[in-house]
Amino acid sequence: MAESRVEQREARVATGLAELDRWLCDQVRQGLAISQQAGYRHWDDIAARMVDAQAAGLAERLRALAALPRSGPGWEGRLLEEYALLRLLTVAYLERAALPPPLRDTVRSRIGFTVRQADLLASGQPVRDHWHVLARRDLDQERLRVRRVWLRGRASGRYALVLSFAAAGQSLDDSLAVGTGADAELVFYPAAIPLRALVATSRDAVQPGPPPGEGVEGVEGVAELLASWARALGEDPWLEAWPAVLTVTPARSPGPCVFDASGDALPLHPGAGDCWTLFALSGGRPLTVAGEWTPRGLWPLTAWDEGGMAVPL
Predict the structure, then answer these.
(1) By the 8 A CB rule, do 186 and 160 touch?
(2) How far apart are CA 29 and CA 161, in angstroms?
(3) Is 110 exposed, middle or buried (0-12, 13-18, 19+ CB in 10 A)?
């Protein structure tokens, strides 16, 4: 019975993706200019059809496209890029039998297939380390709040992303406080780039952690960050964010950015706001910053002051 349900869902998703492929081709054929006149329903309709096809991950991504035509200069390139990534995801799923297993797992998760926590704990290989809680970011999605917590193993240097979810009005998991650390075992979800993880067991109480760079774990420069991002995109072209821990100096000119000791600079994400806390902590001096690197810039989430205290931004 369970196998039959899986086959039925696979077939339904494939049918929905074939429809999405035709829709994407129509958008490019008609031209991107009409997107600025289209209302939110233009994307809601195709997103609803993906929900019916049990491809909820695609539906969420499609709804997010509605804001792009009004996102400022360069919106055409950003919209076309998203269309291209959606079509790549569609083709990858329809040709999933030819993909290596880690990439196939990534494609399935991007579309909306999930792995039950009990199954992950039963089959996954735990990774034990002293995990430093680097940064946290809360996102509001449709009828759901999401908390993204970035960890890094002190001995392994491995990054991990722990997600928690809550309905509107409910509290998110607050057990992983920025600037703390704990000896714990994590199990990583299967993927081409295994970042998302589940805390399997915690072996000691959460305690203050040292600033990044003390001990085995190091701090990157801009060039190293961009190189690691490029390698990650080669494995998972649908990545939307990449963990970053940098020693940098914030600057306002020629635009909001941070630069490292070699002079290499990164723009700050326009959605991150004025970042006054970051500039105040720096005072024109270098400091350690943790955050998410995205195609639109660095989203700073945590900085460490002169005393080594973690300050959420």
Answers:
(1) yes
(2) 38
(3) buried
Of residues 96, 79, 81, the one with CA closest to residue 17:
96
Bond before 286 cis per omega within 30 degrees: no
Question: Rounded CA gap, 274 and 256, in Å?
Answer: 8
Helix 41-52 to helix 2-30 angle, to the nearest 10 degrees? 160
pLDDT tens track, the chain, 313 positions = 567 787 888 889 999 999 999 999 999 898 888 887 877 888 899 999 999 999 998 998 899 888 888 888 888 999 999 999 999 999 999 999 999 999 999 999 999 898 888 889 888 899 999 999 999 999 887 778 889 999 999 888 899 999 998 887 788 888 888 998 889 999 999 999 999 999 988 766 556 666 666 443 467 889 999 999 999 999 999 999 999 999 999 998 888 999 999 999 999 999 898 899 999 999 999 999 999 999 999 999 999 988 888 999 9
Domain boundaries, the chain: 2-111, 117-208, 222-312
Q: What is the amino acid identity at position 233?
A: L
